[in-house]
Structures are given as C-alpha cells and as structure tokens.
Amino acid sequence: MWRKSVRSHIVGKVELDKARLQHDLEALAAVPRVEEEYDEFSSGYWKNLSLWNSSGEADDTMYRDIQGSAKPTAHAAKAPYLDELIHTVFDSKIVKMARARNLVDAMVIPHRDFIELNKDNDQYFRTFMVLEDNGSAFHSDDDTVIHMRPGEIWYLDAAAPHSAVNFSSDSRQALCVDFAFEGSFTEDQIFADKSFYRPDLEPEIVVRKPFTTDHRDKLVQLGGIIDNDNFKDILFLMSRVHYRYDVPAAETYEWFVEACRLADDTTLTAKAEGVRDYMIGQRALGERLVAAA
Amino acid sequence: MWRKSVRSHIVGKVELDKARLQHDLEALAAVPRVEEEYDEFSSGYWKNLSLWNSSGEADDTMYRDIQGSAKPTAHAAKAPYLDELIHTVFDSKIVKMARARNLVDAMVIPHRDFIELNKDNDQYFRTFMVLEDNGSAFHSDDDTVIHMRPGEIWYLDAAAPHSAVNFSSDSRQALCVDFAFEGSFTEDQIFADKSFYRPDLEPEIVVRKPFTTDHRDKLVQLGGIIDNDNFKDILFLMSRVHYRYDVPAAETYEWFVEACRLADDTTLTAKAEGVRDYMIGQRALGERLVAAA
C-alpha cells in the first residue's frame, strides 16, 4: 500500500485524447531545441519548450516569481490540445509557468530546486504529467523510484532530492505546470474542475534490487581511477545506480565524495563536496559551479 | 622533429583578421542549434552549422557526394568573413561542404569516417581550421594528440581512428571544409592562392604522460562495475584517457571489450564488440547501433 507523504505523489488524472495529443506531440517534436543556458549537470537530449511563461517569449525558459498568471507563448499555439488542458484542467489564473519537456537517452542527476527563490519552498507547487508511455523513463524522489503513466498528474516535491532519467532513445514528452501560492492552500485549488483531483490513485513504484555493501564498496573503489577528466562520467555513473538498486538518490554524493577522498586528491575532493552542496545543499541565487572545469 | 605522414597534418595557414572573425563568431554563436540526427556517440554541447552544402538548405548537415561545388546556405550570409575565406583561400569550385562547428565540454569518441561513402577514402580531403584558441581543446589522430592553433589549416585523415574533445566549458569554434577529387591530386590543389599552402609548419603535438600496465589494469577492472546502465559512461571515461596518456586512441576499445568480458556478460560483450566495429571497423551505409539501448 502506497502511503501518501509530503513527497511527490499523484494529485490528479486526465483521460488523454490520443489523436489530439498526437498532433501536439508531433508539432512540439518539430520545434528545434532552444539553445539553453549551459547546464553541466545534465546529459543527453534534454528539451524544454515554454508554453506559458512570465514574459510570453517562446525562447524564455526561466522560472520567475510573478504576479498573476503566465502568458501563452508561440509554442502554445502549436499545441492546442495541451493549451486547452492547461485552461480546462487547471485553474489557469494561478498557472505561473507551463512547459513541454522531453528527455531522451538522458539524465538529470539528483538535485533540489527552488532553493534560490524568494518564497518558502512550500509555496511552490509543481505538477508533471507524462504524455507518452516509456517503460525506460523514470523519476526518483528521495528514496522512491516512480514510473509515471500518461495522464497522471503528479505533484513534484522539488525541494527534496530528485532526479529523472530515460535509459532509452525513445521520446518521453511531458507537460510541467507550475503554481505558486500566497499563504496556505490545499492541493485541489490547482484544478479548475475538481473532478480531475484524484489523490486516491496508486502510483507505479519501481521495485528495485537490494543495494549491498559490496556494491557500495565497488562504487567507492572508483576512487582508484577518478580524476578531473572522468569526474563527470563517474558522477553520472553513480547517479544512475539508485534507479536500479534500493538506495536513496542523495547517497550518490556520499559515494562520490568518498571516492575522491580515496583518490587522495584534496582539490578533487573539494570539487566533489562543492557539487554535492550545490546540487542537494543550499546555494545562492545565480551561483553556478562548473563540474567539468 | 615532426615527421609528416599520411595521417592528419598541417597543409596551410591563414592570418586571421580578429575583428572581422569576432563578428562572425558572435553571429554563429547566436544561431540556435539545429536539431540533428540523434547521435549516441557524442557527449556535451556539439554544434554543426552548414555554411555551404549540397542542398543550400541551412538545416541540412549531411555530407553527400555531389558533382561540382557546394551551395552557400543562409548561415554563410551571417558569417561574411568565413564565407570570404572559403572563396579566397580555397578553390571554391571543388568545395563539397563547409561547416562551422563547435564543441563545448564535449567529446566525439574515437571513430573513423567516410567509410560508408562511394569513393575510395583517399579521394576525400577534409580540412579543419580552429577559429578560437582553447588550451583545453584537442584532436587525436591515431596515436597523436594535437592542439590546433587558430588559423592553421589541417588535413584530417578521417579514415584513421580520430577523436575530438573540449575539456572546458569555453567555446571552440572551427571551420571544416571538405573536398573530394576524381583521380590523383596534390594537396596544394585545394588552395585558390598557393601562398596559403604551408606544408612546412610544425604542429603543436601534446606531450602525454606514460601509459602504464597498472593504469591499463585499472581500466579493464572497471569490468567489476560495468553494466547496461553505465556502459556509455565507461566508454566515454575510457575514450578520454588517450588525451592525457601516451596510448593510441583505438586501444580504448580493447580495454572496453576486455572490461565487458571480465564482467562475464556475453550480451554486454557482444554490444561492446559491436560498438568497436561500428566506430573503428567497417560499417554499412546508414547502419546505426544504439550504445545505450
């Protein structure tokens, strides 16, 4: 039995119209990727199209605190079904951003979000709905690995260490809708039509293999080969482990720092600690650490 | 003393006009990346803009055998200095393709090119000129690692195992101009003005650390951790080794296949052998192997 917690969980469900959805998915797949801010902590093909945002500019992918609701961009016009869903499923007056995202043969390593912004973390409410079924694509949240099914509306606890991966080269588009509240709120407030609110649904939690101390030792022993050149390869290798083995995502950084200590390289160890603190600890607005520098 | 060989070598030199070049570099940096064919053997930021190609279409990045010369695309108009260099330095009548390329915190792993096309390999002549100095960006060719300096025109022996890397997150734009000949030719034929032909110039060859059997053993011992999920991480980790240690690029695949054998996983071993054969062995036109499948 799934116990609902403050962590990521299903808040709603949409029966997707496959024919209308297919049109939008194809239209969005045809949009060339916008050149984003250089991101040293992602790998593979990562696409992020703003449907609604603070400026209304299609190329603006930055989340910002705004008064009122976000404005549709030119990409929203290409995806009329998704634009309609944002209007009819959600309370569009409080939508702060809506993005169509894709991740192919790619991973976003464990991290926390929103820790740079002004509000308390619990004033942000991010939802995520997978649009294409992909059995090789997963999300992780603290110590849980999830396979999201199309149409499920998930609350993502961005303040907890989380990660996303697609082990395959097949597409996995998703709709990410962000809300922000002033003061107290209940989850059902994000919906225009409360029939979409379905906090009772059970998620598909991935059953993982046991994580052994022998496995942990082997990972830390990568300290025998770690250096500045393969720092990122090893960080990414370690970041994938929790998807298959039953261990919290954040422990990735423990093995990683221990491996650098084993290499007896103080510069590398300091760099690894810096990455750990940047990804799952506190960080200042705009601060960027280049792992591969 | 550098011994000229049939492998990659300097064929010419241009004194670059820094002010005019800067304009073009900024204009090309502002062009959003075209969504390219999915490439499972690259990592990081890899940009490829067609200045001249077989179709004249800016979004067409495919090399094809063509009669006569390539046609300028819309990108050539944005880079008037580079377009002028293609006209005045090279014999533009026999230019088959000209591309502005960038590689940032990225690597193209050891591979051979052109083995799919119709002509004998020695009928293709690819030149490469780095436009920005970047002390962390290297090329490798068989058993040599090169730091190319701005303005040097290199012949790239694409039929030999070669690789490119930029260990930094700084830009490293380059101009790649392809020629193809019918029958015998001499290298100076690519130049419109023979004063650019400078086969006497000495390259900057990177002095690497000795590669030891202990280091080799440690790499092969990665078989203790290799699996389907980290297959690509480990391939990339191994592919970087030859840039720092004195060992031929192609040996990467020996360690890699040995590591998979050590893991005693026949499926993984077959996959590694397939990647090796695809990258540095023979392959059929259009055949694609997905390393991360």
Report on the architecture of this protein:
Chains A, B: Pfam families: Asp_Arg_Hydrox, Pro_3_hydrox_C. Chains A, B: GO terms for molecular function: 2-oxoglutarate-dependent dioxygenase activity. Two copies of one chain form a homodimer. In chain A, helix 5 (231-244) packs antiparallel against helix 6 (252-262). Residues 283-293 of chain A have low confidence and may be disordered. Chain A has helices at residues 18-29, 74-78, 80-88, 213-220, 231-244, 252-262, 266-280, and strands spanning 9-13, 42-53, 71-72, 95-111, 124-130, 137-141, 144-147, 152-156, 162-166, 174-180, 204-205. With 293 residues, chain A is α+β, with helices and mostly antiparallel strands. The first copy, chain A, folds into two domains: 9-205, Jelly Rolls (Sandwich), CATH 2.60.120.330; 209-280, L-proline 3-hydroxylase, C-terminal domain (Proline Oxidase, Chain: A,  Domain 2). Chain A is built from seven helices and eleven strands. Chain A starts with 8 loop residues before the first strand and ends in a 13-residue tail after the last helix. The interface between A and B is medium-sized, with 32 and 32 residues.
